[in-house]
Amino acid sequence: MFKGIDYVYEVYLERSFSKAAKNLFISQPSLSAAIKKIELEVGFEIFDRTTKPIGLTEFGLEYIKSLEKIIEIEENFNNYLNDLSDLKAGNISIGGTNLFTSYILPPIISEFSKKYPNIKLNIVETNTSSLEKNLYSGTLDLVIDNYDFDSSVYERKFYSKDNIMLAVPAKFLSNKNATDYVVSYEDIINGKYLDESVKTLPLEIFKEDPFLFLKEGNDTRIRAEKICIRENVKPNILLELDQQITAFNLTCFGMGISFVSDILLKNVGINEDICIYKLESMDSAREVSFYYKKYKYLKKATQEFIKISESIKN
């Protein structure tokens, strides 16, 4: 009934026979024939080949649900076996947006690898919506993000605070109307800008200037839109980008205004080509946390990774 699990599930994930075949290192005709054989054995079509990308039939939807339960049981047992080896073997898949994989994970990964050199780490960089999808499917064991994942589905381990700030090219003339709101690099480093005495920027000052937004599906994009709505500003979006660091670098070159994390600002250093401003905290303040799926066997290696992250943070 569930022969060829890997083949069926890869086609489901990729929504494409050609992409799945490439990932599985087999030819597309061979994969198509294998899937067709499975469908003949179960008596129903799993995939709807009339849609693009390929979809699931009604039977296929139930088949995949059952398949995922089998995969999860197998993964849980394999994780249990790896734990019996006392962390002398195994693997962890960790996901995060570029911001966190670049500036938070490196010291944790370094320390973990020193302590457990035989545990293979797989790091995945993608946007928030893809991270949640992969965590739910079991492709990822752990995710670090500042989005509030569904607490009924995921366990959460708080890591740190994160605040969105506004980065504006220094050459923009609108800065002349915002001199009372500029935040110094020193105040960002020591956290002083978070004091209530530091004024928040009225965003309308820059309503006529071009903005650089992240693409939809990213938490920073979601919050930037909320901030604009709250400030009654309809942003002129010049570009939509995948990564916050790309938006920030374009701001440094005078292309437009970007919403950036104070985590990024603390790591990139002083840049005289931009002005930084504090935003109202309702949508700009967020928490960075590690997430893992509830009711799923939590690998000992994953537990150790979280433990090491806490020791480094402290």
UniProtKB/TrEMBL annotation:
<dbReference type="InterPro" id="IPR036390">
    <property type="entry name" value="WH_DNA-bd_sf"/>
</dbReference>
<keyword id="KW-0238">DNA-binding</keyword>
<keyword id="KW-0804">Transcription</keyword>
<dbReference type="Pfam" id="PF03466">
    <property type="entry name" value="LysR_substrate"/>
</dbReference>
<keyword id="KW-0805">Transcription regulation</keyword>
<dbReference type="InterPro" id="IPR005119">
    <property type="entry name" value="LysR_subst-bd"/>
</dbReference>
<dbReference type="InterPro" id="IPR000847">
    <property type="entry name" value="LysR_HTH_N"/>
</dbReference>
<dbReference type="InterPro" id="IPR036388">
    <property type="entry name" value="WH-like_DNA-bd_sf"/>
</dbReference>
<comment type="similarity">
    <text>Belongs to the LysR transcriptional regulatory family.</text>
</comment>
<dbReference type="InterPro" id="IPR050950">
    <property type="entry name" value="HTH-type_LysR_regulators"/>
</dbReference>
<dbReference type="GO" id="GO:0005829">
    <property type="term" value="C:cytosol"/>
</dbReference>
<feature type="domain" description="HTH lysR-type">
    <location>
        <begin position="1"/>
        <end position="57"/>
    </location>
</feature>
<protein>
    <submittedName>
        <fullName>DNA-binding transcriptional regulator, LysR family</fullName>
    </submittedName>
</protein>
<dbReference type="GO" id="GO:0003677">
    <property type="term" value="F:DNA binding"/>
</dbReference>
<dbReference type="Pfam" id="PF00126">
    <property type="entry name" value="HTH_1"/>
</dbReference>
<dbReference type="GO" id="GO:0003700">
    <property type="term" value="F:DNA-binding transcription factor activity"/>
</dbReference>
